[in-house]
Amino acid sequence: MSLVELAVTMMVTGILLAAVATVTIGTLKAARVVNVKASTAADARIGMEAMSRTLRAGSIPTGTTSALTVATSSQVTFYSKINRSTALTVSGTLIPSLIEYYYSGGCLMEAQTPARVSGSGYAWDTGRTTKCLLRTTAAPTFSYYTSGSATTALTVPSGGLVAGDRQSVQSVEVALTVTDANNSSVAGIPVDVRVTLDNVVLQAGGTA
Q1: pTM of the full predicted structure?
Q2: What region does 177 belong to: left with phi over 0, alpha with psi -120 to 50, or beta?
Q3: Distant-in-sequence, close-in-space partners of 195: CB < 8 Å, separation ≥ 6
Q4: What CA–CA distance (Å, rounded) separates 27 from 22?
Q5: Tell me: the pLDDT tens digits for 148-200?
Q6: Distance CA 174, CA 192 (A)
Q7: Strands in 119-163 per DSSP E
Q8: N or C, which end of the chain is more exposed by having fewer CB within 10 Å?
Q9: Is the dihedral angle over the CA atoms 171, 73, 38, 48 positive or is it negative?
């Protein structure tokens, strides 16, 4: 084999190896993206299902006029009949806990505060716990509707809905993008869920 033939062979082999390496790297990258998206989608589904159950259990406690205490485009605070095993029960009646959903540190946070008896009423000022429910690249967007079938959301001012508008809310929509904090280069999974507050509808005389 001459020197020229050897050089040509080495060059062709180098080109083939480079092509194989490129294909392999591309395949591995595509597989990683698929795996990250699948894992993120699963996290999004679990988190949104948990949020939906909590919203659906929203309720108006005795002595108050609305299930919602804060309703902005990026945060919602409301009363919900969850955690039946640990929530306050008075004369067989479950007293709702105070739930908060808000954005902080790359997370959609969930805070829960159980009720306690305070004089002739109730207070939600002790025992607050928080956890990161879902990781997101930006704050979620909350929209509010006067019924489960309404197609036009209430206009939310910068300070949030006023008390009168909060009383009319019977459905809440949440939209956000869920991302993997360890793989920020992979596009997040956009999710959107709308929940009717069944207890609120029933308390208003409607049918859930």
Answers
A1: 0.81
A2: beta
A3: 51, 52, 55, 56, 171, 172, 173, 174
A4: 9
A5: 999 999 999 999 999 999 999 999 999 988 887 777 777 888 899 999 999 99
A6: 6
A7: 121-123, 129-135, 141-145
A8: N
A9: negative
